[in-house]
Specification:
By secondary structure, the protein is of the alpha/beta class. It has 16 helices and 15 strands. The strands form five sheets. It has a four-stranded parallel sheet with strand order 4-3-9-10, with helices on both faces. β11 and β12 form a beta hairpin. Bound molecules: zinc ion. Zinc ion binds next to α7. The site of zinc ion has 4 residues, from α7.
Length: 459
């Protein structure tokens, strides 16, 4: 089956041709960690999770490298750290923890790499040095380093703008020290009291754009397959990433396919703190809205269209997910994790998830429950949110607890203590853990109705 992707770069739906089908490489810009993720932040996380699952299915689990970075040094983080009188590290660690919890709640697969920007400072400095050497960047008196957009002919080609319209349209501040008002920061000097690093241009910190260029180069190479993010990142962030990387790496392209998801509005209005309609994943979790329901709403509008988050959609999604959970929980199903052909076809057509959802309804009408269930699991609607409602148990703890019981059961079987092994099996099943024995090996998975408290009871 051929995967087609809408490429922002060409403004066309194209057949996906990987650079190396044994090594598919995708980079998605991750969060700047200073605050709770709102549902606008959650959308790309969930959309690219579906693409990640699809790529793994099409090319093999081990053939896909997915990088989603964490920006842990930024003006907003520094502002928050001084406002709350906490260290930058305290702010970022706490926010990263929230982000992981939210993603687990939404049943998002962990990317292959989640690099933190602060771990790649030397690579950023090295890249800036190359840009200066090649005269694509210049150093100001105070140690600030700027990228010179005039030196990169294709500047504006990703966002399809020319230099003039970019300056006017984006109300770029006129800074007399800049050769072009669009020149952007690669390195920013700062006082020794602030978080920073020594560099050839003095103490300072990197600009946001160079972070992604340096991390993607280090982990994925000079050119890779897919670069994703929200539509708001096309300009200036992705335009700047491309410019720096192409100039520094001497390549024609940073990523061959650029994918962008649309905005999220709330009840037809732009989401903003000042309007009081700011909605975080945590707000929804606190209302006990299942992760699968949030996931459903985020996916039900085509990823390139603006998504209007409404209470009506949330209620509808709740009804559908309840119905789906019922099908999964009350039937004996053959689970192999392979979605139906029609579902795959819809996914391969530039992630047409609205069509996927129509197909899910059709599968139920046709009473193809196995096909339905396999697609359901493939799409990640099998959230285990009962786990998260019990604050004392995180996912890792659950994994460890289940694994311990599995090993205990294997030992009991080895010792021919079948009474004990049966008791453990019953306990796991009661908790909602499905176990499969393959000779001496046992694999397990959690059902949507998984209830960890049953694991805590005595045999
Ligand atoms: Zn980025």
């Amino acid at each position: 089956m051929k995967l087609k992707i809408y490429n922002t770069k060409s403004k066309n739906k194209e057949i996906f041709k990987p650079l190396d089908s044994n090594n598919i490489r995708m980079y998605v810009c991750g969060p700047t960690v200073y605050d709770r993720a709102h549902i606008g932040n959650a959308r790309p996380v969930v959309v690219f999770d579906i693409l990640y699952r699809l790529l793994k299915y099409l090319y093999g689990e081990k053939s896909v490298t997915y990088v989603r970075n964490i920006t842990d040094v930024d003006d907003k983080i520094i502002a928050k750290s001084s406002a709350e009188n906490k260290s930058v590290n305290e702010i970022t660690s706490e926010t990263i923890k929230w982000f992981i919890e939210d993603n687990n709640y939404l049943n998002v697969n962990k990317p292959t790499h989640q690099p933190k920007a602060t771990h790649y400072i030397s690579q950023m400095i090295a890249m800036i040095e190359v840009l200066i050497l090649k005269k694509n960047a210049y150093v100001l008196e105070d140690g600030e380093v700027l990228f010179s957009v005039n030196t990169f002919k294709s500047y504006g080609s990703l966002s399809k703008q020319n230099l003039e319209s970019m300056i006017v349209g984006n109300r770029v501040d006129i800074d007399r020290r800049k050769k072009n008002p669009l020149d952007f920061v690669l390195w920013k000097p700062t006082s020794k009291n602030n978080i920073g690093w020594d560099s050839p241009w003095g103490y300072g910190r990197p600009g946001w754009h160079i972070e992604c260029s340096a991390m993607s180069k280090e982990i994925l190479g000079d050119t890779f397959d897919i670069h994703g993010g929200g539509i708001d990142l096309i300009f200036p962030h992705h335009e700047n990433e491309t410019a720096q990387s192409i100039c520094a790496n001497n390549k024609n392209s940073l990523a061959n396919y650029w994918m962008h998801n649309g905005f999220v509005n709330i009840e037809g209005q732009k989401m903003s703190k000042s309007l009081g309609n700011y909605l975080t994943v945590e707000d929804l979790r606190n209302k006990n809205i299942d992760g699968a329901v949030i996931r459903f709403v985020l996916l039900s509008t085509h990823y390139r269209q603006p998504l209007d988050w409404t209470n009506r959609k949330l209620t509808e999604a709740q009804n559908i997910i309840n119905k789906w959970f019922n099908v999964i929980n009350n039937r004996d199903l053959n689970i192999n994790g392979i979605p139906t052909n029609k579902i795959l076809e819809a996914l391969c057509d530039d992630l047409n998830i609205p069509l996927v959802i129509t197909e899910m309804h059709n599968l139920l009408k046709e009473e193809d429950y196995d096909g339905f269930a396999n697609s359901f699991f493939f799409l990640g609607f099998n959230s285990n949110n009962s786990i998260k409602s019990n604050n004392s148990l995180d996912k890792q703890t659950i994994n460890e607890m289940v694994n311990l019981l599995i090993v205990e059961r294997q030992n009991a079987r080895k010792n021919k203590d079948y009474r004990k092994s049966d008791l453990i099996r019953i306990k796991l099943e009661k908790a909602g853990v499905t176990i499969n024995d393959h000779g001496n090996e046992t694999t397990w998975s959690l059902k949507p109705n998984f209830n960890p408290s049953s694991l805590l009871t005595e045999n």
